[in-house]
Automatic annotation (TrEMBL):
<keyword id="KW-1133">Transmembrane helix</keyword>
<dbReference type="GO" id="GO:0005925">
    <property type="term" value="C:focal adhesion"/>
</dbReference>
<dbReference type="InterPro" id="IPR007110">
    <property type="entry name" value="Ig-like_dom"/>
</dbReference>
<protein>
    <submittedName>
        <fullName>MPZL1 protein</fullName>
    </submittedName>
</protein>
<keyword id="KW-1015">Disulfide bond</keyword>
<comment type="similarity">
    <text>Belongs to the myelin P0 protein family.</text>
</comment>
<feature type="domain" description="Ig-like">
    <location>
        <begin position="14"/>
        <end position="129"/>
    </location>
</feature>
<dbReference type="Pfam" id="PF07686">
    <property type="entry name" value="V-set"/>
</dbReference>
<dbReference type="InterPro" id="IPR003599">
    <property type="entry name" value="Ig_sub"/>
</dbReference>
<dbReference type="InterPro" id="IPR013106">
    <property type="entry name" value="Ig_V-set"/>
</dbReference>
<keyword id="KW-0393">Immunoglobulin domain</keyword>
<keyword id="KW-0472">Membrane</keyword>
<dbReference type="GO" id="GO:0005886">
    <property type="term" value="C:plasma membrane"/>
</dbReference>
<keyword id="KW-0732">Signal</keyword>
<dbReference type="InterPro" id="IPR013783">
    <property type="entry name" value="Ig-like_fold"/>
</dbReference>
<dbReference type="InterPro" id="IPR036179">
    <property type="entry name" value="Ig-like_dom_sf"/>
</dbReference>
<keyword id="KW-0812">Transmembrane</keyword>
Amino acid sequence: LLSSLYLSHTVKVSAVEVNTPEEMFVENGTDAKLPCTFTSVEVISSAASVSWSFQPEGAATRISFFYYFNGKPYPGKDIPFKDRITWAGDLNKKDASISISNMQFRDNGTYICDVKNPPDIVVKPGEIRVRVVEK
């Protein structure tokens, strides 16, 4: 009589889940808050970080334009949103939102919010398709 022995090994990996609206319409010339919230089973530590990137409508590549780490915002230097970005989140409240002032038609595209909270890993960043429309 033969019996089979099955060994299973489960590695418990916790993940950060990022939530954003799928699509947003913003009036030309107005300020837009791009909402990004997340869930994480780990305590939010000083190692937590947020990065935002932008893929213009019709472009194949993404532009990283904002990084938040250790309580400080780091907006990119040579970016389409220079001097128009404000940190609007609070990592302790699991909010990684930003605001962009004076939205323009050239700001049409996909905005990607990526949150890291080690040792949690992000499975999938949040993506918001933003459409700037006439007033």
